[in-house]
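Recap from last week: sequence in, structure out.
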Amino acid sequence: MLKKLFLTTTALVMLGVGSAAADGKVLKYTHYQPGREDQPKHAAALAFETCVEKATSNSIDVQIFPAGQLGNATSALEGLKLGSLELAVVHDGGISSVYRPFDVFALPYIFPDHETAYKVLDGDFGKEFGDAMLAETGIRLLAYADNGIRHFTNSKHPIKTPDDMKGLKMRVQPAPVFISLMESLGASPSAIDWAELPAALAQGTVDGQENGVTNIMAGSLYQSQKYASLDGHVYSLHAYLMSDAFYQGLADAEKRAVDTCVVEARTIHRDMTRAQDLSAEKVLTEVGMEVYVPTADEIAAFRSVAQPVVEKQLEESVGAEWVAKLKEATASAQGAQ
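Predicted structure tokens:
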């Protein structure tokens, strides 16, 4: 069951004022999609809440705060580090502001499909990466889920080749790797927070942006974006992140409940987002966008221009080791199929 708590200030929430579980453990859980069951993050959150409370006989009271009610990604990550927030499902660009190596997943055109991505993320590479993040930040990476395969949209013209990107003012997440991606293609990048993006597009502050179909629909971005190019340049991620201080304070049975229930939430989150990814052309066409699906040769042209530039930037910013390990894990996953 979802506790609909409408508190007047974030400070009150973060302090746990008015908690319904004064004698138990309160798990404040925030995410950044609307609080509707047709939204992958929220459907997953509801499932996690039900699962954890049942498995722990309500010794953990899960309180869900959708649509960024507890502040932006940066403030949520700081809350996780400080222990004032227990769980946040955060997008990749936001995570990299606290743990820069997360940028490695933005290496363009690295994952050819969902199956390959899941093998890499759920395998040895994903575990090693999460362990490194925990050691550096005190934030426990419980699971990786989909933020949608990212595509280009804009209000000016169709994007079929890298040359079509030149001169476009494009919004990016506040992460250097996305700036490098846009610059490699000749576009002019502008870092804008997600909450400000719909207004920036509507007002013409930027011509376009890049996101998966789930976020395009969640933010109603199609209202000011006429053209979509389904190039799939980045396999974008959400991560289920927990304060390790909170996790370590749980009883063993409660830890097992969290570990089990987050897998259930991740599965729902992935399944819903993947279904939208696979129907992107239909979904975006139905809301009035002009959708272009690049050929394999056209995507190869984008890859040849963008990947070397971004890879070099990543080697400098996150280290050549992480880049090499991701490429090796991806090749291994593809070979195992």
